[in-house]
Amino acid sequence: MAGVVATNTTLTRPTSVAAHPVSAQAGGLSGRPLTARAAEVVALVRDRAGDALAVIGSGGVMDVDDALALSDAGADLVQVYTGLVYGGPALVRRIAAEPRRGPARGPLGRRGRRERRGGRVRHFGLRLQEATDRLGTLCVGVDPHPPLLAEWGLPDDADGLARFADACVEAFAGQVAVVKPQSAFFERHGSRGVAVLERLLADLRGTGTLSLLDVKRGDIGSTMQAYADAYLRDDAPLAADAITVSPFLGAGSLAPALDLARATGRGVFVLALTSNAEGPGVQHAVPAGGGSVAGDVVATVAARNAGLDGVPARPGDVGLVVGATVGDAVQRLGLDLAASGAPLLAPGLGAQGATVDDLAGVFGAAAHLVLPTSSRDLLRHGPTPGPLREAGQALAARCSAALRHP
Ligand SMILES: O=C(O)c1cc(=O)[nH]c(=O)n1[C@@H]1O[C@H](COP(=O)(O)O)[C@@H](O)[C@H]1O
After folding, report:
1. Cα separation, 207 vs 114, whole angstroms
2. Which residues form the Orotidine 5'-phosphate decarboxylase domain (predicted)?
3. By three-state DSSP, how is residue 179 classified?
4. Pseudo-torsion of CA 250, 254, 259, 260, nearest 10°?
């Protein structure tokens, strides 16, 4: 055997087409629904085949960036089918005009492949859209609470954390759109706990699973730059695809993180309306010029997302955190979340009392931007990865159905 052609059509139905009247019919999908999966499969084939086989990348190549993604994933040649139908022969000329690059190799190469295409940054919003289209709309929180460790029969030490993290990777990597480790539960074990977090982030990176590190950082500009360096640089030991930040030292103080995230193709989720009972006292407060503190946060994020280049319909790279527990606060405060273009991280499901059925009411016209997240309520299905995975997939399907575009 001289080589492998990867891939063909896909039998999965991403959420972007699930509502289409014929989506239940049998048969494989071509075009855009294949793009992200094809790059993953090509990377897998290249990793397994090494240099022994030629790899021809095919599937969802609709534009030059898609072709470069397959090349970066390890393809020696790239094929176009559906892209040729819609893009015409000029697409071939544009792809062929790109300088040929050898496939990236090794752990650093793999990281570079996911975030950059030919020196061009792949925006976080686009990567998130691809992941939710393919895997459904759910972010799984990895919160190794002491009571959960005990329930799972694990010690409350770095070894327990490591086994907890491994089970989560086995259950959720490649199965849900985003995995969100909660830094606090690792930090409480000092440097050994942080080392486990570092390995967890590397494992998620290695499996192509988006990581959202929940650290809720926020500080004066110069210190914020250091926090940004810690999580948002390509070469940071704790690099994640996105982080949570707190705007309550003034949303403008977050600029170093937002700038670095944009430069490296990462995301930042800014707290706006948090899920806890103490949040409204600060977030609903009316500043001197009117509106609300949360409204100012939303406006800052909307301004950031409006400046993005590329396809206007895709979600922005800067997200907002709005708890699923906030009831009618979004409407009462007059927040136009849909116009912000921000992916909306929605914690509070299960353990904090919100349900999947609350999501449509809380988010209204912005429902299509919502990324619900659950930690304890989902993790109680452990420690065996199988039931954990099934619970995650079932919850993702329920969330996707509840948030589907009208
Ligand atoms: O940023 C967050 O993720 C977050 C924001 C918020 O407003 N409320 C909130 O609960 N979270 C986090 O989401 C997780 C919720 O965990 P569960 O209540 O167990 O699902 C925790 O790690 C919280 O720190």
Report:
1. 11
2. 137-391
3. strand
4. 170
User: Do the domains 124-402 and 3-121 match in fold?
Assistant: yes
Distance 202 CA to ligand 1 centre (A): 22
Q: Is 327 exposed, middle or buried (0-12, 13-18, 19+ CB in 10 A)?
A: middle
Rounded Cα–Cα distance for residues 393 and 387 (Å) = 10
CATH of 3-121, one of 3.40.50.2300, 3.10.20.30, 3.90.1150.200, 3.20.20.70: 3.20.20.70
Short-list 258, 395, 387, 379, CA closest to 324: 395
Separation of alpha carbons 127 and 67, rounded Å: 16
**Given the residues 46, 117, 122, 216, the one annotated as active site:** 216
Check whether domain 124-402 has CATH 3.40.50.1010, yes or no: no
Contacts from 202-206 at CB under 8 Å and sequence distance 24+?
202/107, 203/165, 203/166, 203/169, 203/173, 204/169, 204/173, 204/179, 205/110, 205/111, 205/114, 205/239, 206/107, 206/110
- ipTM of this model? 0.98
**Domain positions in the chain:** 3-121, 124-402
Burial class (CB in 10 A: 0-12, 13-18, 19+), 353: exposed
The per-residue pLDDT for range 255-265, each reduced to its tens digit, is: 999 999 999 99
- How far apart CA 375 and CA 179 sit, in angstroms, is 10
Instruction: Centre a 10 Å sphere on the Cβ of residue 165 and count the other Cβ atoms it contains.
Output: 21
Mean pLDDT, all residues of the chain: 89
Tokens of 95: 């792809």
18, two tokens? 């699930």
Q: Is the pTM of this model over 0.90?
A: no
